[in-house]
Fold this sequence. Notes:
The chain has helices at residues 14-25, 43-56, 80-83, 105-115, 129-137, 166-170, 172-179, 190-193, 200-207, 212-220, 222-230, 241-248, 296-308, and strands at residues 4-10, 29-36, 64-66, 120-124, 145-151, 185-188, 197-198, 236-237, 253-258, 260-262, 273-275, 288-294. By secondary structure, the protein is an alpha/beta fold.
Amino acid sequence: MKKIPVWIDTDTGVDDAVALVLASKLEELDIVGVSAVAGNTSLENAFRNARDVLSLVGREDVKVYAGADRPLFIKLFTAEKVHGSNGLGGAIIPLSKAEIEKDKAWDSLYEKAKELKGELVVCAVGPLTNIATAIIKHPDIVDLIKELDIMGGALIGGNVSPCAEFNIYTDPQAAETVFRSGIKVNMFGLDVTEKAYLNDEDCVQIASYGNKVSDLFRDSNESYRAYQSKMKRKGLCEHDSCPIMYLAHPEWFEGHECGIYVETQGTITFGKTVSDLWTDYKFEDRHCKAFLEVDREKFVEAIKEAYRSF
Ligand code: RIB
Ligand code: CA
């Protein structure tokens, strides 16, 4: 089976770490690069966490590149109360021994996209600052990325505000740059990612596997779990694992073609992803797919399988 070459851009927080663990175990995927962006936590933490999680799962061969330490135009606002001061909920894991890559995320992503001649799939699970910077600096990258699968946005509601989801809200100008670029965007917003949750029983089961990767899951999810229950969520929403899981199991997800614009002005609706999915009025620019449903049972079992296999 031909593996899908995937580049993961991440603000390596707690659910990002689960997504990296999952990606390292899905045989359908070939992780060809990872880049870190500020969002959940500082760029420094996101970069270190991505390197260290990949090392923990035995993938020090995957190169990790540092990207933006702040959004394109606005101040960085992190989610440390959710992901902890180190981005991994306070969990400590051994430092990676891999060489520190000096090239910038957007340049390395561009080089990899050129090398793969249009076959590269990008999964962005943090603010879209690195992706937007790559598009601004290397405009021809839009013809070299096969598809961009993002965790971000929400057609209904939000988490960081009543109208906006964290990744988009943190850098709406970057998000709008990406949505207007012409790259085919698969959007895994809160509409579907909040249905992709691990309940308490699932969490206890994963934490009981007794390997160093399941120990990271056990030790990093306390603050995240507390946040999710405060937000009245049904469990640990594994937001960032959705675009990753989709690449291996598209049949577990249901999405709809639509146009999506990002609100970059205003206050109340700042960072909102506006879709024409449910209106007769249709945007001219419609090259997105918004995902709304997931087969949760299969999703959860695949995550458990990944953690059992270490
Ligand atoms: O809103 C959820 C998103 O924000 C996830 O990517 C999580 O890691 C945080 O970045
Ligand atoms: Ca994230």
